[in-house]
UniProtKB/TrEMBL annotation:
MF terms in GO: inorganic diphosphate phosphatase activity; magnesium ion binding
Stored PANTHER family: INORGANIC PYROPHOSPHATASE (PTHR10286)
Keyword Transmembrane helix among record annotations: no
Protein name, per record: inorganic diphosphatase
Keywords: Acetylation, Hydrolase, Magnesium, Metal-binding
An example Gene Ontology biological process: phosphate-containing compound metabolic process
Source species of the chain: Strigops habroptila
C-alpha cells in the first residue's frame, strides 16, 4: 500500500477508536496533510485513503479536527454512526474514502452548486472489484463526479477506480462505467439520495439534476479543492477547528516534529478487540416514496 501503514488504538466500534497512519520509515503522519494528492500527476492518478470498505456500515472518517487526523467513527448525539442498509443496498456500495491534500472550504461558494463546502477532504467512491481495508492507501484513476448537496452543503463525490484493478485499463471516463457496470451509477445516485432517510432526514439533492460529470470536470474539481487545502495549510484561510498539524508540508506554519506526533499517538489508549456491530445495523430499510 504505497509504503504506508496504520496503527490501531482502542476497540473498533468504540468512541475511543483511532487509526493512525505511518509512512514507509515508520514515522507518524497525517493522512489528510502528509500523503500527497498525486500518485502520478502526469497521468492524473491520485492517492485515495480508504475510510470505509465496501459492504460495511460504520461511518469511519478522517478526524479533521484531531491532531494527526486519524480515522475514527463519526458520532452523532453521543452515538456511533452507522449507515442503514437502504434496500437493496448493503452498507456502502463502493470502497469509500478521501483524496488527501484537498479541502471543501466552508467559506467558499461553489460556482456549480451555489453552496459552500462541507469542511472535509473530497470524497471518493472506488468502484474496483477488490474490497479494500480501512486505512489502505490506494492509487486511483478518476472517472467522473456527482455533485451531492447534503443538508445545504456542496459534497462532491468523485468516481474512481483502483489502478491495480485487473480491469482498470478499460476504464478512462464516466461513460465506461455506464457501459461496463450497468446500473452502478444509478445505484450510486439512489444511495446518496436516500441514505439519511432512515435517520429521519429528507432526501438529499444534487446539482446538475443528479447527472454525472466527466473525468476532466472531476479533475478540475479536485484541483480546486487542492488549492483550498493549500491556502488552509499555509494559514491563508482560517480553517477554524480543522487540525493542520503535519510532518512534511514545506512552508506550513503547522509543521511539527516526529516527537510531538509520537506523543499524540502514545497518549491514545492501547489497541483492543473490535466491539460487535449493533444488531439494529443488520436490518434492511424498506423505503417507500410518498
Ligand atoms: Mg464530503
Amino acid at each position: 500500500m504505497a509504503g504506508y501503514s496504520v496503527e490501531e488504538r482502542a476497540a473498533p466500534h468504540s468512541l475511543e477508536y483511532r487509526l493512525f497512519f505511518k509512512d514507509a520509515a515508520g514515522c507518524y503522519i497525517s493522512p489528510f496533510h502528509d500523503i500527497p494528492i498525486y500518485a502520478d500527476a502526469g497521468k492524473n492518478v491520485f492517492n485515495m485513503v480508504v475510510e470505509v470498505p465496501r459492504w460495511t456500515n460504520a461511518k469511519m472518517e478522517i478526524a479533521t479536527k484531531d491532531p494527526l487526523n486519524p480515522i475514527k467513527q463519526d458520532v452523532k448525539k453521543g452515538k456511533l454512526r452507522y449507515v442503514a442498509n437502504v434496500f437493496p443496498h448493503k452498507g456502502y456500495i463502493w470502497n469509500y474514502g478521501a483524496i488527501p491534500q484537498t479541502w471543501e472550504d466552508p467559506g467558499h461558494k461553489d460556482e456549480n452548486t451555489g453552496c459552500c463546502g462541507d469542511n472535509d477532504p473530497i470524497d471518493v467512491c472506488e468502484i474496483g472489484s477488490k474490497v479494500c481495508s480501512r486505512g489502505e492507501v490506494i492509487k486511483v484513476k478518476v472517472l467522473g463526479t456527482l455533485a451531492l448537496i447534503d443538508e445545504g452543503e456542496t459534497d462532491w463525490k468523485i468516481i474512481a477506480i483502483n489502478v491495480e484493478d485487473p480491469e482498470a485499463g478499460s476504464y478512462n471516463d464516466i461513460s465506461d462505467v455506464r457501459r461496463m457496470k450497468p446500473g452502478y451509477l444509478e445505484a450510486t445516485v439512489d444511495w446518496f439520495r436516500r441514505y439519511k432517510v432512515p435517520d429521519g432526514k429528507p432526501e438529499n439533492q444534487f446539482a446538475f439534476n443528479g447527472e454525472f460529470k466527466d473525468k476532466d470536470f472531476a479533475v478540475n474539481v479536485i484541483k480546486s479543492t487542492h488549492e483550498h487545502w493549500k491556502a488552509l495549510i499555509a494559514k491563508k484561510t482560517d480553517g477554524g477547528e480543522i487540525n493542520c498539524t503535519n510532518l512534511t508540508v514545506s512552508n506550513s506554519p503547522f509543521c511539527c516534529s516526529q516527537e510531538c506526533a509520537k506523543a499524540t499517538v502514545d497518549a491514545a489508549p492501547p489497541c483492543k478487540a473490535a466491539n460487535p456491530i449493533p444488531p439494529e445495523v443488520d436490518k434492511w430499510f424498506y423505503y417507500q416514496k410518498n
